Amino acid sequence: MHLSAENLAARRGEDLIFVNISFHLTTGDALVLTGRNGSGKSTLLRVVAGLLAAEKGDVKFVDNSGRSDRRPGEASHYLGHRNAMKSELTVAENLAFWKEFLGDSEGGLGLSVEEAADAVGLAGITHLPFGYLSAGQQRRIAFAKLLVAYRPIWILDEPTAALDAAADRLLAELISGHQKDGGIVLAATHQPLGLENATELKMTGFAGVGEGIWG
Ligand SMILES: Nc1ncnc2c1ncn2[C@@H]1O[C@H](COP(=O)(O)OP(=O)(O)OP(=O)(O)O)[C@@H](O)[C@H]1O
User: Fold this and answer.
1) Would 210 be classed as within a structural domain?
2) How far apart are the first and last CA of the chain?
3) Contact indicator for 35, 203 with CB cutoff of 8 Å
4) 12 Cα–ligand 1 center, Å
5) Which residues contact 3 (CB under 8 A, 6 or more apart)?
6) Which letter does DSSP use for residue 106 in this model?
7) In Å, how far from its chain's centre is CA 73?
8) What CATH number does the domain containing 13 carry?
9) How many CB atoms lie within 10 A of CB 26?
10) Is the dihedral of CA 197, 29, 195, 50 positive or negative?
11) Range of the domain at 34
12) How far apart are CA 194 and CA 208, in angstroms?
């Protein structure tokens, strides 16, 4: 499996956010995006997930069987800043919705709702409305969404925001487990996640980008 980007550039509104971003990731790899606020980490993740069009360049995905006709977004879980859960539905209902809606993609099977809640240390509270949970518990459940439906690529924007130290470690272990199972991870973070096989890509934002870059 390969996920690669060649000379990506992206714009938000009128502003060019970054140019000439390239990377090549293979089975088990992680790319950790670092850089100051506003340097373009979320923008790059959204481009890779297919949620934002690149201004220039391309992202390519080749799966384990050599198929290259699927867009990277179709093979990805995207965990953004928001948790993408309905406050008034229970934790179990939210996760069951995502399990049914996303389904498993080729190459793996998702956990049951209870197994996924257990994996993030919250097996006992799946009957509660999502809105009753603390911020850290909500983030853990948002992460459990990644476990109920299999996707080979995980795209994570500040996955450990709002988490305590124990949950930090738990999620880092789940991310490492995904890598060991052959998955690929892209994560933007301000805190070290302690991942193995990880390459750091320091985003610098638009500063210093001159005229004439479009050649
Ligand atoms: N919809 C938008 N329209 C215009 N500019 C935007 C839009 N969304 C983001 N930006 C700008 O794009 C730049 C990059 O933002 P981005 O969210 O990618 O940064 P980041 O590195 O993820 O920051 P943080 O560490 O704060 O999460 C910022 O200057 C931001 O103001």
Assistant:
1) no
2) 32
3) yes
4) 7
5) 24, 25, 26, 48, 59, 60, 61, 72, 153, 184, 186
6) T
7) 10
8) 3.40.50.300
9) 13
10) positive
11) 2-202
12) 30
SS3 of residue 9 by DSSP: strand
Distance CA 84, CA 143 (A): 10
- Is residue 208 situated within a structural domain? no
Q: Whose CA is nearest to atom 25 of ligand 1?
A: 37
Number of folded domains that form the chain: 1
The answer to whether residue 135 is domain-embedded is yes
pLDDT digits (tens, 9 = 90+) for 16-55: 999 999 999 999 999 999 999 999 999 999 999 999 999 9
Pocket-testing residue among 8, 11, 39, ligand 1, by greatest number of atoms within 8 A of Cβ = 39
Shortest-distance Cα residue to atom 30 of ligand 1: 38
Parallel, antiparallel, or unpaired: how do β-strands 56-62 and 198-202 relate?
unpaired
Smallest CA separation from ligand 1 atom 18, residue? 40
Residue 213 lies in a domain: no
Q: Where are the alpha helices (DSSP H) in 41-102?
A: 41-49, 91-102
Beta strands 15-26; 2-12: pairing state = antiparallel
* Token pair recorded at residue 115: 């197994």
User: Is ligand 1 within 6 A of the CB of residue 40?
Assistant: yes
At 114-125, the pLDDT tens digits run 999 999 999 999
Atom of ligand 1 nearest to the CA of 43: 18
pTM score, two decimals?
A: 0.92
